[in-house]
Amino acid sequence: MEIITIPRVLREKLGDNGADSLVELLNRVSNHTRDDVLTFVEEKFERHLSEEIGKVNERIAEERVSINQRITEEVAKVNQRITDEIAMVRGEIQVLRTDMHTMRADLIKWMFIFWAGQIGVILGILFAFFR
């Protein structure tokens, strides 16, 4: 708190009680002015803070939209890649099945040829034996 001194001439005209009352009045005015300035500064700070918070919230919303959009794009890419891989595996499975069917048919063909040869040999031995 600032110390207020009253000049001697004014103190003599006002007297001790008047000078003390004047100092008290000046202190009250000073306190009231300080309170008014603090209130004004607080209101201005709150208004500025609200504006800045609004800007930050807006920026957060923009970034959130951007991130959501990027996540959506990346998920779509992953889904497409999974679909492509599944299609490729299905194609390979189909080729494998075709190859297996071909091999099975070849095995059955060779089995019949072997059996026919065996039957021919057995019949030949039997004809030779019974003659």
Q: Could you explain the architecture of this structure?
A:
By secondary structure, the chain is mainly α. The chain has one domain (1-92). It contains 1 helix and no strands. It has one helix at residues 8-130.
Helices and strands in order, then pairings?
Layout: H1 8-130
Question: Which key terms come to mind for this protein?
Answer:
131 residues, mainly alpha
Short synopsis of the structure:
The protein has 131 residues and is mostly helical. It has 1 helix and no strands.
Secondary structure class reads mainly alpha
Low-confidence blocks of residues: none
How many structural domains can be distinguished in the coordinates?
A: 1
Rg from Cα: 53 Å
Number of strands: 0
**Helix and strand pattern:** H
| Helix fraction by DSSP (H/I, runs of at least 4) | over 70%
Mean pLDDT: 89
Helix tally equals 1
Give the N-to-C terminal Cα separation.
146 Å
Biggest sheet character: none
Strand residue content: under 5%
Outline = rod-shaped
